[in-house]
Amino acid sequence: MIVAANFKTNKTRAQTRDYMDEVNAYIRAENVKSEIIVFPPSTAFDNYGQGLTQGAQNAYAVENGAFTGEIGVDQLKEFGIKTVLIGHSERRHILGETQKEIAVKFNYFKNLGYQIVYCIGEKLETRELGQSALLAYIATQLVDIDLEYENLVVAYEPVWAIGTGLVPSTDDISQIHADLRAKTSKPLLYGGSVKVSNMVEIVALENVDGVLVGGASLYAQNFCEMIKIAEEV
């Protein structure tokens, strides 16, 4: 199982340090076998010791250079970061990243051997068009993406479920993950209003290899409880 936390634009460096210390202590005390990834804001990057994996929520496809507001490989190297989140819906739909730009970023970090957590998902209006339209839309988010890249993790996050408290039915999740499994053998995560109360039924589904958690992951105690659930599946 993979249990990943995306802080988005939340937590200071001090708050992140306290969180990481608590989660790492839990991982050591419980001899956790699952893969635990935390994506803090870039201002909180640090050396957090062994246990969990620290990832970047975003990075630019460059080593360094004149790209105001971006971070490149040099900044990731300083903290030993080799995991990056690419294609998140907020990058696509709020910040306007196109599939072409996302694919360029994907292939840049693929060529460097990074672990890539690649996000896909649909808006509500697409889901309401039916299953065939939904699958066709998801396919557009896979263009020029190597679905058998050795360090790939795919995260399905329906946009309409992120931060809303709404969650697709288990049948809906199973159908999408079955379609993705036909396309890739790599780990498949589900994300979108995942919380302690619904995680058991989600991770018990076939072809669900873990979760990518947003708001509910901001509390270390909750996140450790999610790790416990993943360990018991």
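the 2nd protein, sequnce then structure:
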Amino acid sequence: MFVLVTGGSGSGKSEYAEQRVLEFGDTIRYYLATMMCFDDEGKNRVERHRKMRRGKGFQTVERHLNLSGLELPETSEKTTVLLECMSNLTANEMFDQTGSREQTVEEVKTGIDRLRRKCDNLVVVTNEVFSDGIIYDEETRRFQSNLGKINAYLAKHADEVVEIVCGLPVFVKGGLVK
């Protein structure tokens, strides 16, 4: 199962995604953390997410770049991966000196395809950053364009696409099967 979870900042995406992972039952759970921390605000956000995951059986894997190079341990047990979040990974690939830069979209798509083949369930969290009506500088518009292309690719291949609005899931594609 491949689930894409999107929504605005503070909408409840992370909480929903973690709950969705738990609904897959008894699997090995990996949390792919993509955020690079540069200040106290970032560190506080990471700590808040760690507290949210506590006791849920996640093994955290820091992966800021090069998703296609990620190796998960071989196992005969079912595995579920929660990647949080696509907008951080995209920014890292675009702007970090060691990132894929101009090849960001292809690098991320290749990484996701490879990850999908390596796990039984994949939940990807991304951000909806396109509807605030603000006109941004060229570099930010390039980021939005790349993230938009990646999000469209993910949505096309996902079994389920869920937008979180005010903490509530709105199913855009597929639906929760219990």
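The radius of gyration is 15 Å. The CA atoms of residues 81 and 159 lie 15 Å apart.
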